[in-house]
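note to self: the first set is below, dont mix up w the second
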Amino acid sequence: MNLKKIALATAAGASLFAAIPAFAHGWDHGRYYGRYYRAPVVVYPPAPVVVAPAPMYYPPAPVVYAPPPPVIYAPAAPVVYGRVPVGPHAALSFGVRF
C-alpha cells in the first residue's frame, strides 16, 4: 500500500513539474494593468471616400418568341390481322424458363 502511495505521489509531482513551463509567463501577456482586465484600444484610420458615377438604368430586353419546333412522330407500328392460334398444340413462348 505504501508503494502505491509513493508511486502516485511521484507521478503527480512529475506531471506538475512537467507543467511548470506552461505557467511561466502568465496569461496576461502584458495587457493586464491593475486589478481588472481592460481590452486594448484599437484606432482605425477613416475610410477612404469613393466617388462613383451615377448608375445607368437600361430598359428590359425585347421579348422574342421563336416558332415552335416541328412535331415528328415515330412511324406507326405494323398491324397484323389474323387469328391467335388457340388449340391443344398452340403455345406462346417469350423465351423465359421457370
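second set (the one i keep forgetting abt)
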Amino acid sequence: MASLKNKEVKLSSFSSHKKLLTLTKPRSPNSVLVCTEDLPDEWFIDVVEYRTKSEVVTNVSTIIKKDLLVKLDWYYRNGWIALTNN
C-alpha cells in the first residue's frame, strides 16, 4: 500500500482482501480491520485502522503472521473488542 500522506484512501480499496478480524473500541470513532491478500499462505497480514463512519483509512501496518497475536494482544489490552471473525 502506498503512503497515506495527503491521500484519502477508502476502506473499499481492501475489498479484495480476505477479512480475518474486525476490532472496535467503545466510544472511539475508529475501527481496525485485520486482513490479508497473501493467499493461500496468509503470511503477510495488513492491519488497517480507519474512521468507522466515513471508512477513510488512517493507518496501514503490514505484519507477518507469527506477530499477529502480539499485535492483537496490544489492541485488547488497550480496550479494543473483536467484532467479527471471518
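remember for set 2: The beta strands are 18-24, 30-36, 44-51, 57-64, 81-84.
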